[in-house]
Automatic annotation (TrEMBL):
One of its GO terms (molecular function) is double-stranded RNA binding. Residues 37-405 form the DZF domain. It comes from the Eukaryota. Residues 1-35 are annotated as: Disordered. This is DZF domain-containing protein. Residues 10-22 have a biased composition (Low complexity). Its main location: nucleus. Residues 23-33 have a biased composition (Gly residues). The keyword Flavoprotein does not apply. Keywords: Activator, DNA-binding, Nucleus, Transcription, Transcription regulation. It comes from Oikopleura dioica (Tunicate). One of its GO terms (cellular component) is catalytic step 2 spliceosome. It is found in: Nucleus.
Length: 405
């Protein structure tokens, strides 16, 4: 421009508007960029084919989905918990509940007045099953159920040992082991069935616990188990959600790369994959074969990788994603296994994927199906150990020189 410097002439003399006010609105980006500015992390949303079904219409035949559905039902019959094992676990739960109910009895009127002057008497508010057994997603071969014991007040550390000793004397035919670190007690029968009992109290009372009580962090963690069981019972009413959760749990047992997922993450993944929403926001349940393919597609696209939005954990107070507790190696393995299984499934190797045929080396060796070569995905994450440099050597001071007169 004649008689001027043209666009951006403010950059020629940055001191005219001060060190932090160059150009329009401040810095070079047009925004104020002074010291102390905090960056905001925005997680990315992996590609979900269900959210853009109009732009990407389905091309596979319904016959393929029906074949996958038959294989899913066939596998579900094999992995569903047998009635015999279910009855054994239910009896263990009832026996433990009966014993625990006798530990804390309601005090008499005179005893109650004396105790109220000192402190609120201890009692059990609730005993319930949680986890896969309560959610009916436990698969055959797993002989452990989880129980949540909710007390009226936070348990003290010395009371925890007495509690475990009482349970040992009341159940002489069982093997009892306790862990103060996790506020849990394991009860194992002679035939190998186990009940893992977790101890907590109401959320408001956890805040009042001190150094003499069990750790707050563990008490809150155990308390969330009850919230998860309640959420699942209210939001996963459809039996197909439980069916898909059992199939994914079977994958988690059979394929080592999926073992980094927690059982809770598997159940949330089943609920997310089965749920479909239209443009008006109305929810509907997808067919199980389509939901299974959707789950593998999401995991393949990085649904549980670092930076992904993933699935928000409804039991967490801060709304974090369920996969934030996974290690980076586990996240990478989950993505790799899902990619390989999806290729094999879509190429017609579903019977190997569901364990209906020999699947040895399925994720480690090259597969040839209908003259198509399928290579397993390779891990990307490499763990690098931080090496602490050695401190610099301190030079020794020279010996003093004696001065002669």
């Amino acid at each position: 421009m004649p008689g001027g410097r043209g666009r951006g002439n403010m950059r020629g003399n940055p001191n005219r508007l001060g060190p932090y006010n160059r150009g329009r609105g401040g810095g070079r980006g047009g925004h104020f960029s002074g010291p102390g500015r905090n960056s905001v992390f925005i997680p990315f949303a992996p590609f979900d084919l269900e959210h853009c079904a109009v732009q990407f219409p389905k091309v596979t035949s319904n016959e393929f989905d029906s074949q996958v559905g038959e294989m899913i039902l066939e596998r579900n019959k094999k992995i569903t918990l047998s009635e015999e094992d279910s009855e054994i676990m239910s009896k263990i739960y009832e026996e433990i509940s009966e014993v625990l109910g006798s530990f804390y009895t309601e005090p008499t009127e005179t005893e109650g007045e004396a105790q109220s002057k000192q402190e609120d008497p201890q009692s059990i508010d609730d005993i319930r099953t949680v986890g896969a057994f309560a959610n009916e997603t436990l698969i055959d071969g797993v002989k452990e159920l989880e129980m949540l014991i909710t007390l009226r007040n936070p348990m003290k550390i010395d009371e925890f040992g007495e509690f475990s000793d009482k349970l040992t004397s009341a159940l002489p035919t069982y093997t009892i082991s306790s862990s103060e670190e996790f506020a849990s007690i394991k009860v194992e029968s002679l035939n190998g069935f186990r009940a893992h009992c977790f101890i907590t109290c109401s959320g408001n009372k956890i805040k009042t616990s001190g150094e003499s009580h069990l750790q707050k962090r563990i008490m809150y963690k155990n308390f969330d188990m009850g919230k998860r069981a309640k959420w699942f019972s209210e939001n996963c009413v459809d039996p197909n959600i439980r069916l898909l959760a059992r199939i994914l749990s079977d994958f988690r047992v059979r394929f080592e790369g999926f073992r980094g997922m927690s059982q809770w993450a598997v159940e949330l993944m089943a609920h997310y994959s089965m749920s479909s929403f239209d443009e008006s926001g109305n929810q509907s349940i997808m067919p199980v074969p389509s939901a299974l393919k959707r789950a593998l597609m999401l995991l393949s696209s990085g649904f549980f990788l670092p930076g992904s939005a993933g699935i928000r954990d409804p039991a967490e107070r801060d709304g974090r994603s369920v996969h934030q507790g996974f290690s980076k190696l586990d996240m990478d393995n989950i993505c790799c296994v899902a990619q390989t299984l999806l290729r094999i499934l879509m190429q017609g190797g579903g019977r190997k994927v569901f364990g209906l045929e020999d699947s040895a080396g399925l994720l480690d060796e090259m597969q040839v199906i209908d003259d198509v070569v399928i290579q397993p995905s390779i891990q990307c994450y490499v763990h690098v150990e931080e090496v602490t440099p050695d401190p610099p050597a301190v030079a020794e001071a020279p010996a003093p020189v004696k001065m002669e007169a």
